[in-house]
Every structure is written in structure tokens, then in C-alpha cells.
Amino acid sequence: MAGKIRDEDIALVRERTSIVDVISDRVTLKPAGSGNVKGLCPFHDEKTPSFNVSAARNVFFCHGCGAGGDAIKFVMDVEHLTFVEAVERLAGRAGVQLRYVEAGPAPVRAQQGQKQRLVTANAEAAAFYAEQLGTPAARAAREFLARRGFDKAVAVEYGCGYAPDAWDTLTRYLRPRGFSSAELVTAGLAKEARSGSLIDRFRNRLLWPIRDLAGDVIGFGARKLAEAEDGPKYLNTPETPLYKKSHVLYGIERAKREIARQGRVVVVEGYTDVMSCHLAGVPVAVATCGTAFGTEHIGVLRRLLMDTDTFAGEIIFTFDGDAAGQKAALRAFSDDQRFVAQTYIAVSPDSMDPNELRLAKGDAAVRDLVARREPLIAFALRSALARFDLDTAEGRVGALRATAPLVAKIKDRALRPEYARKLAGDLGMEVEQVTRAVAAATKSGGAVEAPVQQPSAPGSDSPHWTVEREALKLALQEPVLAGPMFDSVEVGFYLHPVHAAVRAAIAEAGGAARASAGVVWVERVRDACVDLAAKALVSELAVEPLRPPGELDLKYVVIQLARLQLPTVTRQIRELKSRLQRLNPVTSQDEHLRLFGELVPLEQHARALREQAVGGL
């Protein structure tokens, strides 16, 4: 059959091809003993690596899905190529000159497979565009790059190019080189005009070649240079047999080895951001191409990161600090659950992207941006809390309903209690209340009915219920001993509503400090009660024995009243800290200082109460 590759040339390709090198372009491989290596299978989704490669035998096999074969088979399967196309791809890599039966010493274009033809067309287009960048007509393109900090050498290194401001310059360049109209349209380099003639897809635009993991040009990203012209600011190659936007990551061919080595990837938003990161010393940066970061991108990165149950790298997202950037970050958090790796977000304090940051503050600022990353869950929680007024009970309840499902989604179960505690601090709520809401969200798959936040009455078995009861007994039975100290603790420290009613009646009766023990004092308090339950409780407490461990003395009074106040003071501290955490100390400096001034004496008071509660005077 015409175009058949000679058997001895195929054998030579196999001999000169390292299957480990070929597969390493797409999958991070780790030693697996006996000279073998392993990684996550590129042909099915898995958490534990079952994809094994034998360098000695030059074959691969996946114990999970059964895929296997040599380097040629791998390239055929992973890139959906024919046998001939895969051999041609590997021959070019290995420097083998193929000979074809009935086709002379070298292949002719018509005998190449479609994908290889499209790769060749894109490569020639990239060379053409790069050459055009040096022409007088490309001045605006060169100035665009210069304004963003990229000189001629950088433009050459990254293959930047210019599409001339004409209808069919590229088409007229490629057609004489043997490419058909159908091939140019299929490659996304040209399209049919209304007249039926062929015109270039990109015109008067700065271009970046987009490459696959193997380094082949598979498409282009193009930026409009004249704002008045029609069309989007950025235009990408359409879906083609080579270019699948949901799989493509700009800069992946440059970053792949460092991603595997460092166990880290930085996901940025634009081509210039990738260039700036790499030039600034962050060589693990990649960007999506005209689409949101999605499931297929995750699959590509998981294999490079060796993202398994036993190994977790880092995924660092950089988004603008505006509303759109925050929305993108929260969408990324939803995808985060597909990673075992820890996910982070890095946002510039000035809401600058990496390219702007490098221009304004230099390379070190870009590296610092990545170094200052924060866990994506922390950012997601903060963004959700910002939508609510946490100084109101309604706002705190709404915030808990919004954030508990986020904590419930954290894939590392060991982190959930820690973030529940942090969330409780941010909301000024009890940890138990937040933990219950997270548990409810976990069971319901995300929905949570948060209880209204208000001081709840302790049950009959509550230690604090006992403390409140003991304090009231001291005031009724021993007013001479306990009166002055008892009266200094206001009704707001009593959480049980009936206890609070009795405390209010004691104040209405003149206060314990002015009373003498006896029936007259107890009756005066009973008469001051407006609640029947409170009246009954006064009679009960007046005769119920006190519970000192030894002889009743002032120390016992101090202990009980300190224990009575601690929960409320602790809650006040928690609420103050929550408000401080939500303030920006730069833009709200006066409010920050005022709240801090309230917090310091309150914490000192809490320390004193804790000392008294354990028996100190």
C-alpha cells in the first residue's frame, strides 16, 4: 500500500525511543521498584497510581483499566493518532528519517495522517507569524509587548507573532506549501467568507502559539491591537482535532517538568501572566485558553502532580481581586474536591495580576505573591462571610447557613474541625453550634438549617445552670455574706430566663447587700417577681441547701460568681475578636483601635475570673 513505512524504520524508531521519556511528557512517573516507574493512568480517572512503565522492556501497562503497549501504542491512544501518524511523531522526536514503500526516500505530505498534517500546518503558521512580528506593520504588536515588560528576546523565546492586517496573507503563504483549503479550515487557521473564498481567522492581532504537552503547536491565542475593530479582545483557535480548549493549558510544555519536580502548579489567567511568572522565577505557571478552569484541566494537572491519596502537591490559583475574580475562585473551590493536592489562592493586595505586579514592583513581588498564598477554603469562607452583616444575629445566622456547607465539603476530614473552630471565631458563635451546622450540612449533602443564634437556656444537667442556681441561693440565704459581690453581677450574666427573672426581682427588692437573711427578705423578693415560675423558684431556692465543699465562706462566693460571669465575658471576647478579624486595619484604623481598646481590658477581666473560678481571691 502506498505510504507504508518500512519495517526496519519502524524498528529503528522503537529502538531509539525511550518510552519513559515519551510518557513523562504527559504523566509524572515515580520509582516503583525493579527498575520500573509508575503514575496516574492518563486513560482513566484514578486516585492511586496503577499505571506502570518498564524502561527495560519499553512497555507500559495499567492494572486499573488494562491499557498497555509500547511507545507507539501510547502515542496512538493518548493523542488519537493512526499507527503511521504515531510512528511519524516519534520518528521526528528520535531523529529517524523514515522511508516509505513506493514513496521514495521521504514522505510526501499527502501520505501523512490528518493530525500530523495539522501539526505541520500550525508549526508553519507559527513560524510565519513570528517572522511577521519584525515587520513595520507589526509595530503596535511590539509596543504592546514592550508595555508589558517583554523585549524582542522574550518575544522570540515564547514564539510571539503577528497576524497581518489583511484578509488572506497566511492562506496565500500556506497554500503553495501543499496545504488544502479543507486542512486550513480544519486546523482553525482559516475560514470561509460569505463569498465562498478562504480568509485568515486571525487578522491584525498579536499571537501566542499554544502547544500541547509534547511541545507541538496546536493552536493560537490572539489579542486585538485596534480597540475600534470588531471582534473580541482575545480570540482563540476554535475546536479542532488538535485543539480542545477544555484540555489546553498555555505554557504547560514549559512548566511540566518543574511542576513534576516541585509538586506545585500556579494557575494564572492570561498569556502575559504566564510569561511574567516564568521570567520572575515561578516556572510552574500555566493558564487556561479562553475558557474556565475545568474538569479536563484538573485531569491534566493531576497526572503531572502525581496527585494521589499518598502524595499531595499544591494547586495555587491567582485571580484578580474584583468580583469576577472572586467568583472564579469560588468556582475553583467547587472543582477543588477533585484534587487530593492542597489548593490555594494568591491575590495581590492591590488586585494586580502577575504581569501588572512584575511591571510595578519587579520579579520579587511575583514570587512573594505566590509565597503569600492562602488556603482556598479560607478565601472561600471569607468571601462568603463578606456578604453578611455579622454584627446582627440575622447576619450571623445567614452566614452560618452559607459557610457550613463549605466546611462540610473540605476533602481532608482532619481539617474540618479546625475550620469549624475558625468559623465560630469569625461568627462570634459557640464552636458546638457551628460544628452541629457543619455535621448537618455533611449529612444533607450541602443544605443546612442553622439555628437562630441567641443565648440558650441551659438544661437541668448543665453545669452553668447549677452555678446560676447556686448564686441565687447565696443571695437569698446569705445576703450579708454574698450581697455586695452578688449585686455587682448584673442580670445579663444569667442565661436561664427564669434565673434572670429572679435576679431582676432581687434588684427590684432593693438588692441583696441591703437585706438581712430571713423570711421577710425572701418574701420581698417573691413579691417583686412578675413571673409565676420565678415566684415558685424563689421559694425552692430559699430552702435548698448550699453546696460548699466545706464551711461556707467568702471564697466560695467569689468562686461561684466568677464561674457565673465567665461564659458571658468569653462570648463578648469572641464577638470582639470576630469584629476585629473582619476589619481592615489600614482602612478602618480608628475602629480597629477602638475595638482593640475594648478587647484588652475584657481579656484581663477574663483572666482574673478564671483565676477566681479555681479558688483564687
What topology emerges from the helices and strands here?
Layout: H1 7-16, H2 19-24, E1 30-33, E2 36-39, E3 51-54, E4 59-62, E5 68-69, H3 71-79, H4 83-94, H5 114-132, H6 139-147, H7 152-157, E6 161-163, H8 169-174, H9 181-186, E7 190-192, E8 198-200, E9 205-211, E10 217-224, E11 234-236, E12 249-250, H10 252-262, E13 264-268, H11 271-280, E14 285-288, H12 295-305, E15 314-318, H13 323-336, E16 342-346, H14 354-361, H15 363-371, E17 374-375, H16 376-385, H17 393-408, H18 416-427, H19 431-444, H20 463-477, H21 479-487, H22 497-508, H23 519-528, H24 532-543, H25 554-582, H26 589-613
What does this structure look like?
The protein is of the alpha+beta class and 617 residues long. The chain folds into 5 domains: 7-111, Zinc finger, CHC2-typedomain (DNA Primase, Chain A, Alpha-Beta Complex), CATH 3.90.580; 114-236, DNA primase DNAg catalytic core, N-terminal domain; 249-380, Dna Topoisomerase Vi A Subunit, Chain: A, domain 2 (3-Layer(aba) Sandwich); 387-444, Pheromone ER-1 (Up-down Bundle), CATH 1.20.50; 462-617. Helices cover 50% and strands 11% of the residues. The protein contains 26 helices and 17 strands. The strands form 4 sheets. It has a 6-stranded mixed β-sheet with strand order 12-14-13-15-16-17, sandwiched between helices. It has a 5-stranded antiparallel β-sheet with strand order 1-2-3-4-5, with helices on one face. It has a 4-stranded antiparallel β-sheet with strand order 6-9-10-11, with helices on both faces. α20 (463-477) packs parallel to α22 (497-508). It is elongated and about 120 Å long. The relative contact order is 0.05.
